């Protein structure tokens, strides 16, 4: 019987949604699953997932580690090693750079196969400095330990070209989304009710964005782009920006001050995060991501499943949505870290917002969570 240990540092946002979907699929497939996680960055559904793993006969361990390198990681590694020695899984799969490092540093027997999904390398954003150098060196040193599952061609290309992991074993399996959960509104009354809950009036035109307040997501460029779009586009008095994302207090304060400086505060809706993020998309008319880099973002896939147009930075991991093979007809790109360019992309969408979008039907052919998880499980079982 296949026995899988899933290791994840984030307990919130896109990485966690990937882990959550994968674990549910494995449990439903009758696979024995253990779960090593961290409660440091956690959302309300993490505890529920831990409970589900235990209810199915698996075990879990809280490594209590953070995303940044720390001396505490040594303790986490020692505890994880003891857990593996006791549980003896066939496969260990680490998600995110921290979990991936812990998994690949384990001194384990050859019969235990190791996998790593980066969910975007830190260096993909072109960021320089000590932190980027440290992360890149770690990835280079551990790159040949086990097999890497990349989410997009850009992520794979970065590993080969920048990290020079040309001999490392890797495969591309895109993220998958639950199309039964992420969907458009089924009625006008449903849309009106969701909008009312979020403080959106019926006539508002809503550009939405979901992402934590971080360097990677670059919310400052999003706000500057929205302000530029409003100043330079006619008939935008009723256009609102629905921005969902948590962050450190310092980042929240800075973003609030930026909105005031740009004079767009009254046009921005900042609701608290919910355990049912699918409702946010049903309130939107278009979805925007200004990220500096991504693996293949869940939020973009969830927007496609909700049949929304996409307004994107042309950064690694977001370029994939423009691939001709997918045929998405309303994907508008602006240059990364360039507010005016992304504002122009907003303007292109605004002028073409009457065009019918068929993103959901097309995305379902390529990004089904069942297909993605089945590919991962087959990888576990056949290698």
UniProtKB/TrEMBL annotation:
<dbReference type="Pfam" id="PF13439">
    <property type="entry name" value="Glyco_transf_4"/>
</dbReference>
<keyword id="KW-0808">Transferase</keyword>
<keyword id="KW-0328">Glycosyltransferase</keyword>
<dbReference type="InterPro" id="IPR050194">
    <property type="entry name" value="Glycosyltransferase_grp1"/>
</dbReference>
<feature type="domain" description="Glycosyltransferase subfamily 4-like N-terminal">
    <location>
        <begin position="13"/>
        <end position="179"/>
    </location>
</feature>
<dbReference type="InterPro" id="IPR001296">
    <property type="entry name" value="Glyco_trans_1"/>
</dbReference>
<dbReference type="InterPro" id="IPR028098">
    <property type="entry name" value="Glyco_trans_4-like_N"/>
</dbReference>
<feature type="domain" description="Glycosyl transferase family 1">
    <location>
        <begin position="193"/>
        <end position="353"/>
    </location>
</feature>
<dbReference type="GO" id="GO:0016757">
    <property type="term" value="F:glycosyltransferase activity"/>
</dbReference>
<dbReference type="Pfam" id="PF00534">
    <property type="entry name" value="Glycos_transf_1"/>
</dbReference>
<protein>
    <submittedName>
        <fullName>Glycosyltransferase</fullName>
        <ecNumber>2.4.-.-</ecNumber>
    </submittedName>
</protein>
